[in-house]
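It is worth pausing here to work through a concrete case rather than discussing structure prediction in the abstract. The textbook approach is simple: state the sequence, then state the predicted structure, then interpret. We follow exactly that order.
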Amino acid sequence: MKPGQPGGEHGSGPITTWLSVPDGEVDRGECALVTAAQDFGHLVHSRPAAVVRPASLADISAAITFAAEHGLPVSARGAGHSPFGQEQAEGGIVLDMGSLPPVREVSGTEAVVDAGARWREVLDLTLPLGLTPPVLTDYLELTVGGTLVVGGIGGAAHHHGTQTDNVTELEVVTGTGEVRTCRPGDELFDAVRGGLGLCGVITRVKLRLVPAPPTARRWKLYYQSLEVFLADQRTVVRDGRFDYVEGQLILENGEWTHMLEAVTYSTASLADLRFDRMEVEDTSYFDFLNRMEEGEAALRAEGSWFHPHPWLNVFLPDEVVGPVVAGTLARTRREDLGGTGLVMLYPVRASALGTPLLHVPSGELVWLFSLLRTGKPADPVENARLTELNIQLYRRSKALGGTVYPSNALPMSPADWAEQFGPAWEALETARRLHDPRGVFGAGQGLRQQ
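Step two, the predicted structure:
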């Protein structure tokens, strides 16, 4: 029988019955397909025809080449933490990047790791040597490759940019099945960092490292006034006194409290800040970075970790952040966040952001405004309502010069994506035609080229 003839097993369709890889595993079993049709968002369920667990670069290249020959979509799956099907491939092939053999090496002030490594595993490698990546996401169980395709932002970004700004080399398997090593100055390097996986699958990464501090002092500064909260955040990000800055907006008993989360690894003054009250704690550096572990365990135990997560992250210009946030909070009820939903808000110096495809508003400061909603299982009407709230905020923000951090429960058309990438869109499209001429990538973002 030849590829394309009727066949298949476990209802996977005719073509992938003949897919094989030299070293790894092709799984068409029900459990694998159902798992690959889900993610942390639990809003989109696109069932693939096969899951490939690669044991080598040759496996990834073979799967992509097969997909290109048969018109199938391909998606790389890391931790499965996407909110809206970004790692899914309807009727196609999902690459389970966690099955790649670990590559974990440190040389000088750089680390080389496999793209399927969790950031916690990177720290397990570097901290015993007194080193750390400069920027880490708040949740350490995300994979290196998974964050690099969107940017990788965190509380140290006002100093060091995103995680994509701290990469010095990438190994990539393109849509032609070619294995490429790319570095700064290579057009593929810039097309892959923050490029949504549209040009290739990241397989290995070389990361910049900096000295790791032994301890962290963490302040939680609380404000009743949004205006004062924003002013103090601007102050501490501009003068750089803290190593890490984030913020939360907390709804309690119908009233909003604003919390500035500030961390230093040495000393810092609070004398000129106008907070109403504060909390402080001293921890080890790793315990601070891994602070979500306890909360994750609690959410898993009570079940909401497994509920839908219609999350939205937008970047706002500094000149409109006050009215946009105030208006959004005035319209947001507790039920619009869900029982465990969060709202985050903090500024980043635009000059620290050097990834061409991470398009942010113009100006000295840009603000990440995140509504991390929790939906309801088995309630598609309510989850659709929360997604519609995301659409409304996205449109309001875009009209005022805002952009998105591209990991959202947000339907976006190709025209929306073209606006999102701004002047870099043409270069990205050129790179896609070169590196993915058969259009195997982009299904999860609605950008697959047919």
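Step three, interpretation. The two ends are 26 Å apart (CA to CA). Residues 348 and 414 are 27 Å apart (CA to CA).
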